[in-house]
């Protein structure tokens, strides 16, 4: 921060520090003087985004370009960042180009909207006209792709559905009854009992231990066979740590994990390794999940070969092609590298790798949070189809409540490592009991015109 001020405003380092702390306070960062001495990895996503906003407005620009500034943030942080941008804009009188794939976000901040596709502007209009009376089929498709909170859908509409039809009846074509009651008589497939994960707090260049904090605090959950349990909550609530702990990717501090009737929490890695085929994970960032030096075909073949799913090179390649087709890609993708694919295509490859070992339990950790609404809808439809086809049991982690409403039979809300509330999807959205759940639902940015 200070570097930019020194360079552009030609002031001393001492004055730059004073101005930096003042800017941090302007963007409502708590303990601004302490934030000044922090490194990026020591800040939350919301704090880092506020620092970037402070940096962008530090030299009083007349135009601010905000490129997906709230994409990976939870709903409450997202809402506060948007209000901050509006306040800064109003105070300084600057213009803003706000780039986003989230139409709910756009509706809360834009005066005029331009819709882009394949490098071209396909429609431009006022916010009110875009949302109330879209003209281009692509705009109509984007508006329909976002999962609704108040309707349970069997399949999400995608942009291609609007190529030949202008009067697309979403509810009439896709509505289904809530399926949570289908699992009442099923046996518990995965269970956690008082699961806890602690991390050390460290300080100084010698990383001296100054205490501990509980990322997961005595969490007890049950998931039935074939059920999808959603985990909701803000950044830092413990969602990802819980998912990783269940798969024994993060060491437990206490509690039990019971998988298919067997206590696996105390198993050594050598004993647990055979179970890894049955328990898989899809991570948030598909690009960092794939080896950039390995072709897509080799990345999938590696899994098939290691776990001896089939024998022989020809059979391995055939199995790879089958897995690609299963996620909607053809064999031409075998020779491509990750950087040659879109975000949605890379995520499909990660899904194919996870399915290669024929898992029974799948953890989806924010696996669509960085994708635009049209690609997100496609990936969610693929996951739902595969879930039905293979009767997968899933733990679906997301800060996007609309995504959870589409995918999940039940939802557990986490805060500070604890479960605040757990209920069927329909009941949780229609009749939330916890004040924190109500706060999350109120922060959801529905289209506002």
Strand order of the largest sheet: 10-11-12-7-13-14
CATH class of the domain at 180-291 and 342-443: Alpha Beta
Number of strands: 14
Percent of residues in beta strands? 15-25%
The profile of the biggest β sheet is: 6 strands, mixed
Rg result = 23 Å
CATH fold call of the domain at 180-291 and 342-443: Rossmann fold
What is the mean pLDDT? Answer: 87
Structure description:
Among the domains are: 99 residues, Rossmann fold (3-Layer(aba) Sandwich); 214 residues, 3-Layer(aba) Sandwich (Rossmann fold). The protein is 40% helix and 21% strand. The chain is built from 19 helices and 14 strands. Strands 10-11-12-7-13-14 form a six-stranded mixed beta sheet, with helices on both faces. Strands 6-5-8-9 form a four-stranded antiparallel beta sheet. β13 and β14 form a beta hairpin. α13 packs across α14.
Record keyword descriptors for this entry.
449 residues; alpha/beta; Rossmann fold; six-stranded mixed beta sheet; four-stranded antiparallel beta sheet; 19 helices; 40% helix
Please render the helix and strand layout as text:
Elements: H1 2-9, H2 13-26, H3 32-35, H4 45-57, E1 63-67, H5 75-92, E2 95-99, H6 103-109, E3 112-117, E4 120-126, H7 127-132, H8 137-145, H9 170-174, E5 188-203, E6 208-224, E7 228-232, H10 239-246, E8 254-259, E9 262-263, H11 269-272, E10 279-282, H12 286-289, H13 296-306, H14 313-326, H15 343-355, E11 361-365, H16 373-390, E12 393-397, H17 401-407, E13 410-415, E14 418-424, H18 425-430, H19 435-443
Parallel strand pairs: 1-2, 7-12, 7-13, 10-11, 11-12
Antiparallel strand pairs: 3-4, 5-6, 5-8, 8-9, 13-14
